[in-house]
Amino acid sequence: MHSTGYILRFVLIMTTVVALVLALMSTALKPIHESNEAIYNKRAIISAIGNKLDKTVAEMSDEEVENIFKENITQKVIDVEGNFLSEEEVMDRGYKAGKAENVDMAKERKKDEADRIYPIYEYENGDENYAIISVRGSGLWDAIWGNIAIDEDMNTIVGASFDHQGETPGLGAEIKDNPKYALNFISKKIFDENGGYVSITSRKGGAVDPDHDVDGITGATVTADGVTKMMKKGVKRYLPYLKSNEK
Amino acid sequence: MAETAVKTAKKESTFAFGKKERKLIGDPLNDNNPITVQVLGICSALAVTTLVKQAVVMSIAVVFVCGLANLAISLLRRSVPKQVRMIVQLVVIAFLVTIVELTLKALDYEVYKQLSVFIGLIITNCIIMGRLEAFAMANDPWRSFLDGIGNGLGYGAILIIVAVLREIFGKGQLLGWKLIGGEDALINTTGGGYLNNNLFVLSASAMFIIAILIWIHRSYNRKLVDIS
Asked: B80–A22: do the CB atoms touch at under 8 Å?
């Protein structure tokens, strides 16, 4: 039988050693983790225009992804009224760097609606001009999010990519795993003929309106409804931007 | 205090690899498989077996954690106060799992994202805790290490078998290579005749597959039938 003093000493030494090693390791690997995460996010953003690029995003090396961001993409940040924010202004809102890629949509969603800021990625390559916007919402179990690429008429969608925190594999997770789902969004319209805001509905039972509906996912009604809600509310935040850049 | 434990342990352990040691590795792969015989670790076996790559990474992680946790606990077994031994075991497991998590996050961020919470949940994998309590607390470090590796492999083998079946029939691919389905696949079924079975992607299918594996295992290994 060990004495209480021995037990205390043993536990104290053990936890100190373990905590020290893990803290050291975590600090040492932090730069790699951060750059991995940044690349992962950039891949997700250009996935929205995946079918406009020479090769699939998955086949691209990290450098090629960085190159697209350096040469073809202008990053902008807007507030709820559609005013562009400078890098300093973004940093004032609690970010380490002021680019659009640094804006954390999850963090923005927790703020008051009036204080939120939104990232925009303007892609330009020859006569291809697209604006990629980010949306975030809730699925069945946890958060879902996506990037939507819009043509220069600021109305037609040219591509989309979705991701999720923890939707059911084979059902809700299909918004990410099944490439056909995102392809459905291509050439859908955000506004109706009169310029009224409609956005896109992920409809159970199949698309009805050819301009504003995509097929829902069988067995994943709640996730599909989450996408609908995310598209309705998320794209709405960019209305001032879309309206002022209309051509 | 740890040093004395190492010294006494060294006296009795030679790094031999004889019949007994082979049994330590071989037993969990067959007669005493953690999944098909002991029916442990089912939760993660259902969750991470949709893709083979995930299953392989998960298996490597469990082999690593199980082997080293067994080794560490066996080295400490004489100095660990009995009253807090479970907590000590948990700290050792959690320590190793965090190392795995940090390393994976740096090496392959995509797989890290796919496995999400399940790497962290190795901490609660009952196979590892079970081996620490049942084996490492009573055996020398070398044999404990082998026992840990063996059990990790036994778990990993079943995981990979299940994942291969689920990926082929559920997604029509293997390690990302298209096998059945679309136009670019090895067997083109766009003309009809076969559709990838979505049931295999859902967790329930892993339950059926594991049950069938247990059935097959028992029907060729009669020893298992006699004990029960």
From this structure: no
Task: Encode chain A (247 residues) as per-residue pLDDT tens digits.
Answer: 678 899 999 999 999 999 999 999 999 999 999 889 888 888 888 888 888 777 777 778 888 888 888 888 888 888 888 888 888 888 888 788 778 888 888 888 888 888 888 899 988 888 888 889 999 999 888 899 999 999 888 888 988 999 888 888 778 888 888 888 888 888 888 888 888 888 888 888 777 888 888 888 888 889 999 999 999 988 888 888 888 877 6
Q: Sort out which chain B residues have CB atoms less than 8 A from A22's CB and list them.
A: 95, 98-99, 102
Inter-chain residue contact A29 with B82, CB threshold 8 Å = no
> How many structural domains does chain B have?
1
Residue B1 is assigned to a structural domain of this protein: no
**How does A178-189 read in b/e, with b if 16+ C-beta sit within 10 Å?**
eeebbebbeebb
Asked if the structure places residue B13 within a domain, the reply is no
Domain housing B56: 33-227
In angstroms, what separates the C-alpha of A23 from chain B's closest C-alpha?
Answer: 10
Per the domain annotation, does B16 fall within a domain?
Answer: no
Cα distance from A191 to chain B (closest Cα, Å)?
Answer: 34
What is the reported pTM? Answer: 0.78
Please state, in angstroms and rounded to a whole number, the distance separating the CA atoms of residues B210 and B202: 14
Tell whether A179 lies on the interface with B, counting CB pairs under 8 A: no
Task: Report the distance separating Cα A201 and Cα A225, nearest Å.
Answer: 8
